[in-house]
UniProtKB/TrEMBL annotation, chain B:
<dbReference type="InterPro" id="IPR035906">
    <property type="entry name" value="MetI-like_sf"/>
</dbReference>
<protein>
    <recommendedName>
        <fullName>Putative glutamine transport system permease protein GlnP</fullName>
    </recommendedName>
</protein>
<feature type="domain" description="ABC transmembrane type-1">
    <location>
        <begin position="56"/>
        <end position="246"/>
    </location>
</feature>
<dbReference type="GO" id="GO:0006865">
    <property type="term" value="P:amino acid transport"/>
</dbReference>
<keyword id="KW-1003">Cell membrane</keyword>
<feature type="transmembrane region" description="Helical">
    <location>
        <begin position="61"/>
        <end position="80"/>
    </location>
</feature>
<keyword id="KW-0029">Amino-acid transport</keyword>
<dbReference type="Pfam" id="PF00528">
    <property type="entry name" value="BPD_transp_1"/>
</dbReference>
<keyword id="KW-0812">Transmembrane</keyword>
<dbReference type="InterPro" id="IPR000515">
    <property type="entry name" value="MetI-like"/>
</dbReference>
<dbReference type="GO" id="GO:0043190">
    <property type="term" value="C:ATP-binding cassette (ABC) transporter complex"/>
</dbReference>
<comment type="function">
    <text>Part of the binding-protein-dependent transport system for glutamine; probably responsible for the translocation of the substrate across the membrane.</text>
</comment>
<keyword id="KW-1133">Transmembrane helix</keyword>
<feature type="transmembrane region" description="Helical">
    <location>
        <begin position="92"/>
        <end position="115"/>
    </location>
</feature>
<dbReference type="GO" id="GO:0022857">
    <property type="term" value="F:transmembrane transporter activity"/>
</dbReference>
<feature type="transmembrane region" description="Helical">
    <location>
        <begin position="20"/>
        <end position="41"/>
    </location>
</feature>
<dbReference type="InterPro" id="IPR010065">
    <property type="entry name" value="AA_ABC_transptr_permease_3TM"/>
</dbReference>
């Protein structure tokens, strides 16, 4: 087996909101083809790390590298990096004035300058992949939360990213819709997609993750494969957290 | 009103397009035929029908030109007020503050009488001076309507667009502006209708628009009731047609089916 190659590397990343330091010297790496699940209490900095990776939330100090290139404000490299990194949000954030198909086709049309017909065809393929082909002409308000999130995943896949970031993708969903989204994510992981998933779904972490990170007060408190992480928690805080999450 | 005329099985875009076309055709017809229609009216309207018709045309023309100027100015000022650069924010804030804090009549008189003194050689004809003053005025109000729309677009929309790698221009024109425009449309239409009526103040600097025409005929014939009623009804007709147009546009953008 080949040695895993680190695709995203974070070195001593710090980030503060006012006096509140949410990331404290975070250093870690994410390998190609691996699924990393990040868990931890709210406010522990896990979403902020995801948002720093694609610079929605610029970090204060330290370095984040994607494929060896540092993440900075330089517009050209940033656009390139954002195309390589797809992101799925807790609140879906589908464009409300466009139907599902246009939501997925927008970025390829604008950034790859695809003709509408070609972009639509490609978007249809992606919608089929997330099981939303029958709803292509519907607007976001006509879709359930789970359906919207599946369209949002298709949209994030449209630029053929090498990594997918999931920021609590099921936290805003009714319980019966959680599975349909997790199924799509499982399918992606099976296809070899590199994924970083912030979630409270412990079952998903156990089953799909190659690695589990536990965030606590802005630091990575524990980093282990899921079997070890859940069966032999590193300390009492983690034990208590897992207990509260009910697995 | 017009929208309800079309068959129910027509789609939303079909019905709004049909309304748009119908309202435009009605407006052109009305402008073309107003003189003829009014000439059948009893004295003193009948003999002055052509003057009324010319006045109405001037009023509409004045409104359209200054409305277009106001839309451009308003969009620019709204963007400046939400810009990152503090100088721009300050400039737009000053413009809105100065225009909204002073009477429109004073602004019209200022552009016509004071501007040539301040800037020698800048002698604007009465119509152009009215366009400048009205455009500046409605621009300040439009700026706040558009800013409200821009601020009402959720932050998640821009974040999702940026996360896809879209640049500033695409984020604005593909994602933010269409949604902001939809939200800004009702207040923008209110401003436009107000502008149509406020254009009557151009009569103070001698623009021969509808109110001016009515007032001249009224004082020449000593028949204030007939002439002023005709003026008022013509304004009502113009605002009604403008509202039909804007309703059609609003309906066109209503992908959520929220307008009943």
């Amino acid at each position: 087996m080949n040695a895993p190659t680190p695709y995203i590397v974070a070195e001593n990343v710090c980030k503060s909101f006012g006096t509140n330091q949410v990331l404290k010297d975070v250093s870690t790496h994410f390998n190609t083809g691996e699924v990393t699940v990040i868990i931890g209490a709210s406010g522990s900095g896990k979403s902020t790390l995801l948002r720093a990776i694609n610079r929605l939330e610029p970090h204060d100090s330290g370095i984040i590298r994607i494929g060896g290139v540092p993440v900075t404000d330089d517009p050209r490299t940033l656009q390139q990096q954002r195309c390589e990194v797809g992101m799925v949000f807790q609140q879906f954030n589908l464009f409300g004035h466009m139907n599902a198909l246009d939501n997925v086709a927008l970025a390829p049309r604008r950034l790859r300058h695809l003709a509408r017909a070609q972009a639509n065809e490609q978007a249809m393929t992606l919608l089929r992949r997330v099981g939303m082909q029958d709803h292509a002409q519907k607007y976001p308000w006509q879709l359930s939360g789970g359906q919207q999130q599946r369209v949002a995943i298709a949209r994030a896949l449209a630029m053929a990213p090498k990594v997918m970031l999931f920021d609590e993708p099921t936290s805003a969903l009714d319980p019966e819709m959680v599975q349909e989204v997790l199924d799509v994510m499982r399918e992606l992981a099976r296809g070899g997609m590199t994924m970083i998933v912030v979630t409270h779904e412990m079952g998903f972490a156990r089953e799909v993750a190659d690695r589990v990170l536990f965030f606590d007060k802005g630091r990575i408190a524990h980093d282990a494969p899921p079997a070890e992480f859940f069966n032999n928690p590193g300390n009492d805080r983690i034990r208590a957290f897992i207990g509260r999450m009910g697995t | 009103m017009l929208i309800a005329l079309w068959p129910r099985h027509w789609s939303r875009p079909q019905r709004s397009n049909a309304t748009l076309v119908a309202a435009l055709v009605l407006m052109v017809f009305m402008l073309a035929l107003l003189g003829q229609i009014l000439s059948f009216f009893p004295e003193p309207i009948g003999s002055n029908a052509q003057a009324f018709s010319d006045g109405a045309r001037t009023t509409l023309w004045l409104t359209l030109v200054s409305g277009a100027v106001g839309l451009v100015l308003g969009t620019a000022a709204a963007l400046a007020r939400t810009a990152r650069w503090i100088g721009l924010r300050w400039l737009a804030g000053f413009y809105i503050w100065a225009i909204r804090g002073t009477p429109l009549l004073v602004q019209i008189l200022f552009v016509y009488f004071a501007l040539p003194v301040l800037v020698p050689g800048l002698n604007l004809p009465d119509f152009a001076a009215a366009v400048v003053a009205l455009g500046l005025n409605v621009g300040a109000y439009n700026a706040e309507a558009i800013r409200a729309g821009l601020l009402a677009v959720p932050r998640g929309q821009t974040e999702a667009a940026r996360a896809l790698g879209l640049g500033r221009g695409h984020v604005f024109f593909d994602v933010v502006f269409p949604q902001a425009f939809k939200i800004s449309l009702p207040p923008l239409v209110s401003n436009f209708v107000a502008l149509l009526k406020d254009s009557s103040l151009a009569y103070a600097i001698g623009v021969v628009e509808l109110t001016n025409v009515g007032n001249r005929i009224q004082s020449a014939t000593f028949q204030p009731i007939a002439t002023l009623t005709t003026v008022a009804l013509t304004y009502l007709l113009l605002t009604t047609l403008v509202t039909q147009l804007s309703n059609a546009i609003e309906h066109r953008f209503d992908v959520e089916g929220r307008i009943q």
